[in-house]
Design brief:
Largest sheet: 2 strands, antiparallel
Shape: elongated
Helix content: 55-70%
Order of helices and strands: EEHHHHHHH
Low-confidence stretches: 2-15
Oligomer: single chain
Number of domains: 1
Number of strands: 2
Strand order of the largest sheet: 1-2
Distance between the termini: 39 Å
Length: 250
């Protein structure tokens, strides 16, 4: 979706006597497309008058929500995969840089690696916050639909991962199940592991099993963080806009 200036008395006029009308819309495929469109229309509305949100069709609204939903879900899946490993490093169950006793710097690095994707997505999406002015019509609608998709995706993803990790803890990695998987490995036709090695593996799995509970809550935290970062930026813009209007009305 892109816009152009034209002189047509049937529409809203800008400062130069023209109007901004969307051309044939292109499909919004990803987050970069969505934010680019938002910034484009914010610039158009800043230079001219407000463009009515009627130009923002139902199809485009769904596309913006879909992009926001995918952004939240994809970032959440990556965080979900890394979270149990991060907790395992903190609990000295998984070595990092060849050591089972990581330093604070090593732990901080693993923490940033795990949270980095969601944090980066949140900061990038926060760019739309500066475009959220009550003087903008179509731009504001775009931001709203993007945030609806983002929030919905983040909440559903958090709920799904939270339930999945608890299911793994309570129903899959139970002592009975783990033992039933390990005992056959002592047979010569398989790996032929000794019972002492089986015992070590068993106790390691039982300890690692606990990481899923902590990881489940960490995924919930990162999901809320993903939504909170752009939301705070939007709220800040709204507050600044109100203060500016109050000063102008004095």
């Amino acid at each position: 979706m892109s816009g152009k200036a034209s002189t047509n008395s049937s529409g809203k006029s800008g400062r130069d006597g023209g109007i901004y009308l969307p051309q044939t819309p292109e499909k919004i495929k990803n987050l970069f497309d969505a934010i680019s469109e938002i910034e484009f229309y914010a610039g158009a509305e800043e230079e001219g008058e407000s463009i009515t949100s009627k130009f923002f069709t139902v199809k485009q609204k769904i596309q913006f929500m879909e992009v926001g939903f995918k952004a939240a879900f994809i970032s959440g899946l990556i965080t979900a995969l890394l979270s149990p490993i991060m907790v395992g490093v903190f609990e000295n169950l998984i070595p990092v840089f060849g050591s089972y006793n990581p330093t604070i710097v090593d732990q901080f690095y693993v923490f940033l690696l795990t949270i980095g994707f969601s944090l980066g997505y949140g900061v990038f999406i926060a760019r739309v916050g500066k475009c959220y002015s009550k003087d903008y019509s179509i731009t504001k609608s775009m931001v709203n639909n993007l945030m609806i998709g983002l929030t919905t995706g983040a909440l559903l993803k958090a709920a799904f991962i939270f339930i999945l990790f608890h299911f793994i803890y309570f129903s899959i990695l139970t002592p009975e199940n783990v033992m039933s998987w390990l005992i056959p490995l002592t047979k010569k036709e398989l790996l032929g592991l000794s019972y002492s090695n089986i015992e070590k593996v068993y106790y390691w799995i039982m300890e690692f099993r606990k990481t899923f509970i902590t990881a489940a809550w960490f995924v919930v935290f990162t999901s809320l963080l993903l939504v909170a970062i752009p939301s705070i930026k939007i709220l800040t813009t709204v507050i600044k806009d109100r203060r500016k209007k109050q000063v102008e009305n004095l």
